[in-house]
Design a protein that fits this description.
This protein is of the alpha+beta class. It has 2 domains: 165 residues, Transcription factor LuxR-like, autoinducer-binding domain (Beta-Lactamase, 2-Layer Sandwich); 62 residues, Winged helix-like DNA-binding domain superfamily/Winged helix DNA-binding domain (Arc Repressor Mutant, subunit A, Orthogonal Bundle), CATH 1.10.10.10. The protein is built from 11 helices and 5 strands.
């Protein structure tokens, strides 16, 4: 549970309220990161912010959004350094706001190629991360850094991220990009029956189509709804039908 956050100026209280208001407005569409993340950077008294989306098909981080980070350095991360990253997957598995130092000591991190040839180029020294998930779906992450000349993040920043996380998660979950409208009528029928717990044989019988055809429609549903399994299809149908 997040406790009271006392170390906030009146301006920061206003910024916090604006962030929550924006995230609750349900009109951000696909601009959640662009609208809200700059204010989060200010609220956390940070210097650099980066955010990516996880592509489960290529198993890589894509669609970068950054503040005060050189685009060419971000490109180097996508092409090379994300595959030599000693910390991000560990932070992602925590599913909560966390200091980078929680998964790798600064002494060990500073010895790595990842730090010396990537992080240090943009002055990133002290970091906190938040990776957001909902109903088995990977949402965007939030990677926030301070430079070497600044103090490390404390509990204040973790508490603020924990307080904001449910609002950010919800806004990202309802952002368009996945919709039942993407499905054909028959694919939609299959997805709805999957959500009701029907087996492939049940679906074939109800829709009077062949088993192989059911499997084809099911594969299309998995791809279009960005799901990995039947349970995720059911969760997506429930979310998108509300």
């Amino acid at each position: 549970m997040v406790g009271p956050i006392y170390d906030m100026t009146s301006d920061e209280v206003r910024i916090f309220a604006n962030i929550v208001g924006s995230l609750s407005a349900q009109n951000l569409k696909d601009a959640v990161r662009e609208v809200v993340f700059p204010d989060i950077l200010t609220l956390l008294r940070a210097d650099v912010l980066a955010s990516f989306e996880w592509d489960k098909h290529s198993k890589s981080y894509c669609k970068p959004f950054m503040i005060n980070q050189a685009p060419e350095n971000v490109a180097r991360y996508q092409k090379w350094f994300q595959y030599r990253d000693p910390m991000t997957d560990k932070l992602r598995d925590l599913r909560r706001p966390a200091h980078v130092a929680e998964v790798i000591s600064k002494r060990e991190l500073n010895k790595t190629e990842f730090y010396n040839d990537f992080l240090a180029r943009d002055g990133m020294q002290h970091g906190v991360n938040l990776f957001m998930h909902r109903d088995g779906r990977e949402l965007a992450d939030l990677r926030v850094w301070r430079t070497k000349s600044r103090p490390d993040f404390g509990n204040r920043e973790l508490d603020l991220l924990a307080a904001l996380a449910p609002f950010v998660r919800r806004a990202l979950s309802i952002a368009p990009g996945v919709s039942l409208e993407q499905l054909t009528d028959r694919e939609r029928d299959v997805a709805l029956l999957v959500a009701r717990g029907c087996s492939d044989k049940d679906i074939a019988r109800v829709l009077n189509i062949g088993f192989a055809t059911v499997r084809t429609h099911l594969g299309n549903c998995l791809s279009k709804l960005e799901c990995s399994n039947r349970a995720e299809i059911a969760a997506q149908v429930a979310r998108l039908s509300n």
